[in-house]
Amino acid sequence: MIVLDTSVVLAFMDRRDADHELVREWMDELEDELVSTPLILAELDHLVSRQGGASAAMALRDDFKRGAYQLEWWPSALRETIDVAERWASIELGLADASLVALAAHVKTTDIATLDERRFRALRPMNDKHDAFKLLPYDSRQR
């Protein structure tokens, strides 16, 4: 299971995005489930509507309706998300990104699909067994 950030979906949907081909190729090969939080869904809905208009927003909603991306929210999710945001206040981590760190701990993964290397390379998983997140699609390429 891979935790999904807004940036990957935006790049996937926008052919003009500099990372569109990288994300598209990675997603074409993807076999794992993509999971995100309602906070990311709300962020996506807003940004896709603003950047791509009504037809892009409908396409995004159709993707969610047909199960292209799973959503996960659990009883302690809000408290855990706020705890993560407070722990990383020094980098001004917002609740949407904090929810992804909490979700990764909840589903027991360190795989995050994001193009936000600056922020997510600074973050550490809540599980003490891992020092860093694996950022996809970047970390799936040969370096």
What features would you describe in this structure?
This protein is an alpha/beta fold and 143 residues long. The protein has six helices and five strands, in the order E-H-H-E-H-E-H-H-E-H-E. The chain has helices at 6-13, 20-29, 38-65, 77-87, 95-106, 117-122, and strands at 2-4, 34-36, 70-71, 111-113, 134-136. A five-stranded parallel beta sheet has the order 3-2-1-4-5. The mean pLDDT is 95.
Q: Strand order, biggest sheet?
A: 3-2-1-4-5
CATH topology: Rossmann fold
How many helical stretches? 6
- Helix content range: 40-55%
CATH architecture call: 3-Layer(aba) Sandwich
Q: Number of folding domains?
A: 1
Distance between the ends: 23 Å
Order of helices and strands: EHHEHEHHEHE
Task: For this entry, give a set of tags.
143 residues; Rossmann fold
Short description:
This protein is α/β, with parallel strands linked by helices. It is 52% helix and 10% strand. It has helices at residues 6-13, 20-29, 38-65, 77-87, 95-106, 117-122, and strands at 2-4, 34-36, 70-71, 111-113, 134-136.
Give me the secondary-structure topology:
Layout: E1 2-4, H1 6-13, H2 20-29, E2 34-36, H3 38-65, E3 70-71, H4 77-87, H5 95-106, E4 111-113, H6 117-122, E5 134-136
Parallel strand pairs: 1-2, 1-4, 2-3, 4-5
